[in-house]
Amino acid sequence: KKGNYEHFMQKEIHEQPESLTTTMRGRLICGDSSKAKSVLLGGLKDHLKTIRRSRRIVFIGCGTSYNAALAARPFLEELSGVPVTMELASDLLDRQGPIYREDTAVFVSQSGETADTLLALQYALENGALCVGITNTVGSAIARNTHCGVHINAGCEIGVASTKAYTSQIAVMAMMALAIGDDTISSQARREAVIDGLFGLPNKVKEVLKLDDEMKDLAKLLMDEQSLLMFGRGYNYATALEGALKVKEVALMHSEGILAGEMKHGPLALVDETLPIIVIATHDACFSKQQSVIQQLHARKGRLIVMCSKGEGPLVCSNGSCRVIEVPQVADCLQPVVNIVPLQLLSYHLTVLRGYNVDQPRNLAKSVTTQ
Ligand code: UD1
Ligand code: M6R
Known about the structure:
Blueprint: H1 8-14, H2 16-24, E1 28-29, E2 38-39, H3 48-53, E3 56-61, H4 63-80, E4 84-88, H5 89-95, E5 103-109, H6 115-126, E6 130-135, H7 141-145, E7 148-151, H8 164-180, H9 188-208, H10 212-222, E8 227-232, H11 237-250, E9 254-259, E10 276-281, H12 287-299, E11 303-309, H13 313-316, E12 323-327, H14 335-354
Parallel strand pairs: 3-4, 3-5, 5-6, 6-7, 8-9, 8-10, 10-11, 11-12
Antiparallel strand pairs: 1-2
Helix pairs in contact: 2-8, 2-9, 4-8, 4-11, 5-6, 8-14, 9-14, 10-14, 11-14
The protein binds uridine-diphosphate-N-acetylglucosamine (UD1) and 5-amino-5-deoxy-1-O-phosphono-D-mannitol.
Uridine-diphosphate-N-acetylglucosamine is lined by residues 42-43, 133, 135, 138, 142-143, 146, 148-151.
């Protein structure tokens, strides 16, 4: 079942152009001269009015599923006009945090069976919120117990490290934002541009997968390191968290995703000429802020690997002293889908080179059904 691949994780990373295509199939409406481009999510269409009228949208999940929601959050805030908050399921339960009748609670889970997420769902149901599921598993507990939802249709994911589910979850949440914002004329041009971006996304992912050999070389360079930091912000704060989660989970290397805006509030003290740091600096509204972060890390002789938009290597690394990963540019809110791919490839190759079990990392289970 692995076909030409050595591991399921590798297969699932390379499958992403196809899994994204299946996720979007039948859900993007082309439009014509008389009708605007739009999105149709069969499982949400009868609930959009309630979602738009809710007091807040709160995303709840664990691990990679939480990171996917974090990646989609800025676009959801932009298009829904409703405050969007985030909860790690276990933390919401620990605090018995506030969930109200006027809330829309969105449960994100690849398996649909994660214990903490399920318990948080019970809690939100008891509190009277509208409960929406985003899951990859038809018939799963979360799919069955939510009021409505969307199946991400990424196909079965076997590797414990979630890869293709992450990119499909982001695509679904971007479509969800488009559907919620569908009644707003002022954002129509923006929505149509993002729908065009979604149509083109599988090909961009195909393009970024060509970095496989480059990521293998980078893994050779980093394989004996103790630690690897990843700095991101804005749309790509989630990319830093998710990249670091992949590296620690499968390559068993300490890695931390850091919000670049927090750099001066502590993490900067770690920077020296030995610690490798990946900085995500693809072109969006935060680009100039990321350029200044790069300069400050340079000034402390940081060992930098910068991910940037194609052709912008010289802009992010003028003196040639850092390594550059150039990726294709897409609509800002979809860029996390492209940017995670090189980091998935890097963590895969690090794991193989370090001799660890790729598909079943020690101590971990694919589906965490106990608290
Ligand atoms: C559905 C069909 C799909 C068919 C399409 C044709 C299923 C599972 N899907 O897809 O095979 O091609 O119509 O129009 O039969 N739901 C939840 N919670 C969740 C996820 C989903 O309650 O976590 C509910 C949805 O609200 C919906 C149903 O499950 O009522 C199916 O969801 P989804 O597969 O996303 O709907 P469609 O894309 O319309
Ligand atoms: O099935 P779920 O999406 O609910 O799983 C949540 C986490 O357990 C999961 O994403 C975990 O973090 C992955 N192993 C990460 O690759």
